[in-house]
Amino acid sequence: MAWVRVRMPVMQAFTGAETGVVFPNHCLYCTEAADASTPVTVSASKSVGRRKYTQTLKLTIPYCRKHQGLDKRIRHLKSGVLVLGLVLTAVPIFVLMFQSSSNPWGKILTILFEAFLGGVVVGVLLLCLLNLIAMIFFQPWRDCPFGLRYGSLGFIPALDMGPGKRRDMTHLVLKFSNPDYADAFVQANPGALKPR
Ligand SMILES: [Zn+2]
């Protein structure tokens, strides 16, 4: 399945949970009746001169129970693998460096930092490996954002804040795995359109 892109302007007044974005009330992944939902946050920032502008939107994605559960399980698996890789690497590095150092308490911050860094590298590598393997065998995994990016099952949002000083040029750029849902979304939101 190819992702369908939808682009819509974001009103400046919209912040946080007050997005004004309407999600048609059926499962975003299978279009069955929606009886559950999942919060998804999307944010972006840009620097203009010395000022930094950040914008964050909280979206509520409707799902059927089945796909809400699936989205949650995939999310937990990803963060689980990341944490497992981090801990299983950082602890041995810490112990080894601590034991082999002549003045371990004097260098404790350096040792902690390097152990953590090593753990993060291995955790992220493991997560990428899990993603690549799962994407080969499991369609819903291909319909998820890679790694720990913004989004959820069948849905990848991004904010495009536009160039320059103007702050009213922000667009929400959404990707849907279900083309029927993308059509329903465009109908429910004036200003939303599918770019060629
Ligand atoms: Zn569903």
Task: Write a concise keyword list for the protein shown above.
two-stranded antiparallel sheet; 5 strands; three-stranded antiparallel β-sheet; alpha+beta; single chain; 196 residues; binds zinc ion
Provide the succession of SSEs.
EEEHHHEEH
Major beta sheet summary: 3 strands, antiparallel
What small molecules accompany the polymer chains?
A: zinc ion
Number of helices: 4
Overview in brief:
By secondary structure, the protein is of the alpha+beta class. It contains four helices and five strands; from the N terminus they run E-E-E-H-H-H-E-E-H. The chain has one domain.
What does this structure look like?
The longest helix has 36 residues, at 65-100. Helix content is 41%, strand content 22%. It starts with a strand and ends in an 8-residue tail after the last helix. Helix 1 (65-100) runs antiparallel to helix 2 (108-137). A hairpin with a 2-residue loop joins strand 2 and strand 3 (51-63). Strands 1-5-4 form a three-stranded antiparallel sheet. The protein is an alpha+beta fold and 196 residues long. The protein has helices spanning 65-100, 108-137, 139-142, 179-188, and strands at residues 4-9, 36-48, 51-63, 155-160, 171-176. It contains four helices and five strands. The chain has one domain (4-188). Residues 27, 29-30, 32, 63-64, 66-67 line the site of zinc ion.
